[in-house]
Amino acid sequence: MARFPRPPLNRIGLSPGKRARLHHLLYEHGPGGGTLLILPIDQGLEHGPVDFFVNPAALDPQYQYELARDGNFSAIALHIGLAEKYHHEFAGEVPLILKINGKTGIPPDNQAFSGLTGTVEDAVRLGADAVGYTVYVGSPAQDRDFAQLSQVRAEADRFGMPLIVWAYPRGEAVAKKGGRDSLYAIDYAARVALELGADVVKVNYPVASEKDADSPAPYSTLHLSPDDAFRKVVQSAGRALVLVSGGEKVGDEDLLRKVRSSMDAGATGIIFGRNLWQRPREEALRMTRELHAIFREYAQPPS
Amino acid sequence: MARFPRPPLNRIGLSPGKRARLHHLLYEHGPGGGTLLILPIDQGLEHGPVDFFVNPAALDPQYQYELARDGNFSAIALHIGLAEKYHHEFAGEVPLILKINGKTGIPPDNQAFSGLTGTVEDAVRLGADAVGYTVYVGSPAQDRDFAQLSQVRAEADRFGMPLIVWAYPRGEAVAKKGGRDSLYAIDYAARVALELGADVVKVNYPVASEKDADSPAPYSTLHLSPDDAFRKVVQSAGRALVLVSGGEKVGDEDLLRKVRSSMDAGATGIIFGRNLWQRPREEALRMTRELHAIFREYAQPPS
Amino acid sequence: MARFPRPPLNRIGLSPGKRARLHHLLYEHGPGGGTLLILPIDQGLEHGPVDFFVNPAALDPQYQYELARDGNFSAIALHIGLAEKYHHEFAGEVPLILKINGKTGIPPDNQAFSGLTGTVEDAVRLGADAVGYTVYVGSPAQDRDFAQLSQVRAEADRFGMPLIVWAYPRGEAVAKKGGRDSLYAIDYAARVALELGADVVKVNYPVASEKDADSPAPYSTLHLSPDDAFRKVVQSAGRALVLVSGGEKVGDEDLLRKVRSSMDAGATGIIFGRNLWQRPREEALRMTRELHAIFREYAQPPS
Amino acid sequence: MARFPRPPLNRIGLSPGKRARLHHLLYEHGPGGGTLLILPIDQGLEHGPVDFFVNPAALDPQYQYELARDGNFSAIALHIGLAEKYHHEFAGEVPLILKINGKTGIPPDNQAFSGLTGTVEDAVRLGADAVGYTVYVGSPAQDRDFAQLSQVRAEADRFGMPLIVWAYPRGEAVAKKGGRDSLYAIDYAARVALELGADVVKVNYPVASEKDADSPAPYSTLHLSPDDAFRKVVQSAGRALVLVSGGEKVGDEDLLRKVRSSMDAGATGIIFGRNLWQRPREEALRMTRELHAIFREYAQPPS
Amino acid sequence: MARFPRPPLNRIGLSPGKRARLHHLLYEHGPGGGTLLILPIDQGLEHGPVDFFVNPAALDPQYQYELARDGNFSAIALHIGLAEKYHHEFAGEVPLILKINGKTGIPPDNQAFSGLTGTVEDAVRLGADAVGYTVYVGSPAQDRDFAQLSQVRAEADRFGMPLIVWAYPRGEAVAKKGGRDSLYAIDYAARVALELGADVVKVNYPVASEKDADSPAPYSTLHLSPDDAFRKVVQSAGRALVLVSGGEKVGDEDLLRKVRSSMDAGATGIIFGRNLWQRPREEALRMTRELHAIFREYAQPPS
Fold it and tell me: Which residue of A61, C2, E101, E206 has the lowest C-beta tally within 10 Å?
């Protein structure tokens, strides 16, 4: 399949600070060559300790930190509490993406909104190379969300800190229009992240289903292949770099096919948590090596 | 038909900063002569990528930027994310109007409210010549909206930044009184924008319908011609300059008649998005030339 | 039973200020040896004077202050009003933990949220060695709670003030998933405190019940022993030190067994209010001496 | 003589706001084509009304404003008081450069330092396209001057406002090393402006004299031609655009030769006050037309 | 000669942000292995364009930037103006140390004091990995200097930004006690930097002279070898990393001997400007390669 190009850092209006920090992630750590391989560990907040049952060692954040270091990830992504308690041993060796809003999975998602858990200045102070923010596109609470994101974005601009937006369709209105995994919703979410100032946007891989019929036209009858659907999402993200989310743990073959499809479509990288740290350490490292091998095929020199 | 005069810049209480910036838009770019021809590209946020299906090239904001430059528009209007990622290549050549609030079209409009996506200071920093703010007149959320607009207006005053208000009737109460396109609702919205401090107000062209019967008297029995109806709206806007919105794509003849009707009524210009960038580039440029030709008829020297 | 280790102060990323203040509590007052024995007196706010009926002397905060001093507690924990009116006589002798948010028990708990009653700077001014903050994990208001906690946490970082988080599952969504005393809810709450930056987390001891069947899998079928359940909670708290809450008054035997179970699981100490000051002074002091005796078994040198 | 190129706007690290504002001055007003023809009227502060005796009409700032408008200057440069009292009539027609520090000529210059008279925010509010700041390079007070300039520069960065630095060697130490008009001093001053963040630097044209022998080697024996000397200064200014100062009134021939020499050396334009407004209006307009004719030879398209 | 160890990053109380940024300089760019090879280009401000006569190409800061990139330096060190105008092309490839105070060489040094030219926040915004501050130890103005440094240090702590102190003995009192190059003065300056919060201290290599007799005892009769003298300075700097300054251009052999002597003494690296960029490019690159070869001998793994 034809490969689609990634946005080059020197064309997309980055301030020197954002560019230096993204360069650090894209070329000096992880697989390099302009790609991103990120290990998120915010599930303890978003889902609770339940995600660690399958691999009890992963309950200790030290496990993910060592995996990020030994697997040579581009960065680890987590909240302020873990950063303050665990990052000091890895500062310099493992780049940090500070996630600065979040919520628990306990209340229902129909009015989804994530309050702040940290600040851009916390990220500066900790030497992070980016901040992460979750926006719930389409939620009835999106007005508050946009305003909160707007302030975070302004702070990120002020400090030259790259802004990674977790762009998630959520809420009762989304559910009625095809659901959170529909192409309609994910495509819209990618564009919203671009419009609101994301430097990097994290999206889920769209999943076709019969609920697509509830999406607005022409999405309701589009019937794109998975590859084509994801490529559409990447194009909607424009000059925002795209990260594909791993989601729940799936089989190796499915995982690697999703990675290749994403990278072919012009994604800059992946952010896989449960699919890596829910595995035993040796298996996680083996899979990480396979990911590195794939990423090498997509390496490009700095622009 | 008699032409109605536009408010002269030297009579409407503008601070020097607002006046200098409006002069830049009204006389130094676009058709000039005191008119405005603005290309908005906020539909990716307001409607989603769905608006770009009819002309896939338009999904890339570079398309609209080149159209604005090559078609010699007075300005382009968009949100912070597009401004930061695309404007740097056109800074100076294409004047910028920064839209600073918005929402997606996913949740229903019955409680419509647009959260902030940027600030007046962002507009200053980017060298914009105006900010755009959407107020949903008549929405149950209008109290928050007015308070938010009030803060934006105060910041705009502080920085000498012209404030363009997208004055849209919306919400369940509007729906019961003739609907968002009724003369009743649009006329009211134009006046609200004037009352709350708009320097320029963007309104839709009212559409008569049988639902007008639900409007309060005497609107319910007014039956004005389209020309007269729009002229009434312009008069309600007082010393706020008026922009007429393009709305959904319509035929050429209809479009040009709407433009003439608006300008005759005393409008300062038009803000047409889909009616231009949903066309292929050459057709869009041809239509733009026709618009320039019309605007030349309405040119006036600076006051 | 095997004893689980407590997090050592020199490994958990503490700033010098936090470390000095925790050292003061853990080694220079109370039972020492790296343990905490804290006397809380915030029940007058949370429950009202009703809690003092069983021992009317306890209505006068002087009673608890003298108990804390004469029983050699590690610290007393209370709100700003009590601190300002009573602490001056004990400053230096009884270390202070300033509780800085709270609520009454009058409205229902389905949207639980505690507003601020003081600031970290108040704590600094009063010479406190820590601040206490209650977060209601899972409450529909948790977005506001996280944002408020985030600001408190940032202030605590700025001033080197240890942050003790009262991590309480609450609200209508918690009630539907096993309730506030379920392992699911308490385990999640402990992790949330860690993620959001608690240096110390106060948790309740989980209580198994048939409502556990409403918890998400695998909690719904876990059926851990009390000891094992609490140990799980301590592990979820990671590098946050754990305090176990006393809750309502229980019998001596139950109380002491709970203390041993907690300390064996790796807790750093206990925070017992009603179980101590609802007793007559002499009985309270006798029980305190028993607690000191137990704590001596768990003493360790500074790290 | 070979012409040296001017720094292109798209290569010199300008933010979008600075670039848009400089574009306004360099291409949309005045002679255009990337040049600057600026009329300063800060002599009333710097020298006092004495400068207006030769042409009493010039005592009224309206005189200079009309000259700037009718002579089509790129901008007028003056202090806040004149801007507030006179600019409102010309806002939009005559671009504004707000001079934000200054002093009188009454005390001696041996410890020269100019206090603030306005702020960058004043410039934003008034719709100015640049601010002007005088730094006295080599003055014993230069430490305070640098700190003050640093704050102005940071505000200019924050608001995207171009910073024009009047780089003047002054003070007793300068006098001992060849004096304020020596190549040594002016060359140094140009570099200092570059180092401290000037977007545009205003310099005097160096004048060779026997005092050059007091300059540090190799300046003491350099003996460059006036053209070569000025070219050296332009090169020391690097990516800061260079404006040459008019200084005291001189004969037409001398004036025009200085202009050509400066433009050949890579200067972006001139800032001539007394040499224009000390002439009667008609003579000033005639000279301005001659300057426009010269500037047209140096016109270049936007980069 | 025995080699003295350098302070290990994990033992010297660095916050995570400082540690991450120093790791970037010490291990990810330049010779690595815990060493620093820094190219300063602040001489245009401190000495004026006079320093560029010997190699005119060096007048253009692009020259030094390309040298830093092609010679693989750990970082370039310069003032805000050069950073804003030239760094954007090298952001990510060449780490930045922002020098934030400075002065010209025009006034005499008897009351030496350097005013601020930038801020720690500027450094954050530009993605710098450290700030540089010059303190004139022993100057009559040192009270203002210490206060200014104290504010810079506090900002650096707040943002996790490493602070590199140019510790220079200067002023009329220093001149009377052996002079600015005496062991007495340099040893004192190194300790002052440690006392005032430097993370890294830049010192000159002491030069024995007969003026040492004017130094206080026992310095007046110490007569240490150059190696021993420098080792004493490094020991006085304690847990501040030491950079040795290049000073004026000297012969190759002298230069390399100074480097070895410094590294043997426990210095972390060198900051050589004129000794490198006053050479023609090829010769500068050759010398840089020799320096890399030496640094490889001193490489150590991260601590």
Answer: C2
